Amino acid sequence: MSLELKEISDFLKQHHPFDLLPDDVINALPKRLTARYFRKGTKVLSPEQQCLHLHIIRTGGTETRDPDGQLLARLGEGECFGVRAMFRNGKAANNITMLEDSLVYLLPEKDFHDLAGKYPQFNYFFEQMGGARLRSGMQLLEKRDDDQLKLMSIRVSDLIARDLVSIDIGASILEAGKLMSAERVSCLLITQNGDKVAGIMTDRDLRNRVVAEARSFDEPVTNIMTPNPISIGPDDYAFDALLTMTRHNVRHLPVMKDGKAIGMITTNNLLARQSLSAVHMVGRIRKMTRPADMAKVIAQVPELLSNLIEAGATSRNAGHIVTTLSDAATSRLLQLAEEKFGPPPVPYVWMAGGSQGRQEQTALSDQDNCLILDDAYDPDQHGDYFKSLADYVCDGLDTVGYVYCPGEMMAKTAEWRQPVRVWQQYFNKWIEQPEPKALMLCSVWFDLRPIHGTRSIFEDLHRMIITKAKGNRIFLAYMVGNALTHHVPLGFFKNFVMVRGGEHDRTLDMKHNGVVPIVDLARIHALANGVDAVNTYERLEAAMTFPSISKQGASDLLDAFEFISITRLKHQVRQIRNGDRPDNFLHPESLSAFERTHLKDAFSVIKNLQTALENAFGKSGT
Question: Is the pLDDT of residue 243 over 80?
Answer without folding.
Answer: no
